[in-house]
Amino acid sequence: MVQVFIQPSYGTPEARRYGTATLDRAVSYRDAGLDPEVLERLEDLHPTGRARFWGATAKHDRRMATVRTGDVVLLTGQKHVQAIGEVGHAFRDPAFARRLWNPDPGKCLWPNVYSLRRYWRVRIPYEAVWALPGFTAGDNFMGLRFLDHDRSKAVLALTPCRQPPEPDDAAEGSS
Questions:
Q1: What is the DSSP string of 10-69?
Q2: What is the DSSP code string of 77-94?
Q3: I need a surface site. Which of 45, 54, 58, 142 has the fewest CB within 10 A?
Q4: CB 113 within 8 A of CB 53
Q5: d(CA 147, CA 3)
Q6: What confidence tens digit (pLDDT) does each residue in 70-95 have?
Q7: Which domain holds residue 93?
Q8: 64 pLDDT higher than 60
Q9: CA-to-CA distance for 43 and 38, rounded, in angstroms?
Q10: Own/partner long-range contacts of 144-147 (Cβ < 8 Å, ≥24 apart)
Q11: Any idea what the Cα angle at residue 89 is, between residues 85 and 90, rounded to 5°?
């Protein structure tokens, strides 16, 4: 079974700004100075040269090292699952992360980066997730959280992961 994790992504103005840059549209990665192995893997998964990206802070290095192609992330904020992504390639590259999100000096950087090979915009209220077995009413899903097998199975049954996703090149003309 795929690993499922929940990650805040649309809650704060800063996160929404980052999301606008790399979730709402695919961005070019070819001229970003990536490690050749990372570039090759991204090319295999995203042959258009564009992908959607998200990331996690260094304190999550160990858990993010377990993320694999096909894992599923619920991107949350404003009391809803706002989007669902299927992971393409996960890697660690602080310079690429800084280039993607251009954080303010002194702000937290996400050196753990992952591409999304499939992406669905949704609007699932937290109450629908809370109603699933193993979840707690009132949980606002703060911070990165990896789900156990039973919760993963329940969440996947709730999601549109079997429907066609938005294409990676939906914004081919954007940078």
A1: SSSHHHHHHHHHHTSS-EE-TTS---HHHHHHHHHH-TTSEEEEEEE-GGGHHHHTT--T
A2: ETTEEEEEEEEEEEEE-H
A3: 142
A4: yes
A5: 7
A6: 999 999 999 999 999 999 999 999 99
A7: 4-158
A8: yes
A9: 9
A10: 144/5, 144/6, 144/7, 144/8, 144/56, 144/60, 144/63, 145/5, 145/6, 145/7, 146/3, 146/4, 146/5, 146/63, 146/66, 147/3, 147/4, 147/5, 147/6
A11: 95
Phi-psi map region of 29: left, alpha, beta (phi>0 left; psi -120 to 50 alpha): alpha
Residue at 46 is within a domain = yes
- Backbone phi and psi for residue 14, each to the nearest 5 degrees, phi listed first: -65, -45
Residue 22 lies in a domain: yes
Residue 95 domain flag: yes
Asked whether residue 170 is domain-assigned, the answer is: no
Supply the CATH number for residue 97's domain.
Answer: 3.10.590
**Tokens linked to 32:** 């970003």
Pairing relationship of beta strands 72-77 and 4-8 according to DSSP bridges:
parallel
Q: How many distinct structural domains can be found in the chain?
A: 1
- 141-160 pLDDT, tens digit per residue, is 988 999 999 999 999 888 76
25: number of Cβ within 10 Å: 19
Find tokens 């695919």 and name the residue.
26
**CA dihedral of 112, 6, 78, 134, whole degrees rounded to 10:** -160
Does an H or E element contain 75, and which?
strand 72-77
